[in-house]
Input
Amino acid sequence: MLLTSSRFGSMKVDDQRAIQFPKGILGFPRHKQYVLLQPNEDSYFYWLQATDRPELAFVVTDPSLYVSSYRVPLNAEQRIEFGIEATDQVQVFVIVNNYDNVFTANFQGPLVINVHRRIGHQLVLTDRRFTTRVPLVELEEPVEAVAV
Amino acid sequence: MLVLSRLRDETIMIGDEIEITVVDIRGEKVRLGISAPRQIQVHRKEVFDSIRRENTSASEVEIEELKIVEQNLRRRHSRTRLQRS
Output
């Protein structure tokens, strides 16, 4: 497919890379198809780009890089609904935000993606240990290299 | 908004498949029981709104902002390597 992104321009993307979000992402219920982009191979961050709206994209990252104990509980009904049979079929991402120059991630609303079936959902977690704004790293102005 | 009064143990139907029952009333607090098909998400509104707001704000992040963060992350990692050596 031809993917048009306001941030990255237009590019050809294999149809099989598309991820369906049957319920969309909260706040954006009408957009149900996304593609995961990785502009830099050594980056911690991916972009989840909507295929039908060039400006709509989210920075996402793997939460286990920051909180190794983070687990997304899925009940039996959710497992059936998402078609998940084994944990290795699931990729969890959290959406990243820049809030007052601090990069945070939404651990309360993780994205759960069934990698084989290419279907994703945004979950709403009730565990109050994790908030919508878990700081990842502080945004600082780049400084000159200092001789050690 | 449709406003209905219910006593304890009474129920409201929303469409054919969603039921809301007043399970308990204690002072200011009402306990509600909700029956809905599993594909319909049911959540406290504040949580839903909070995630929606966060998503909307997150959708505005631009490439330049991310570049600075990645630069800092790399610098942090190389600083750690320097400290160890």
Observations:
- Chain B has a mean pLDDT of 87.
- Chain B touches chain A through 29 residues (CB under 8 Å).
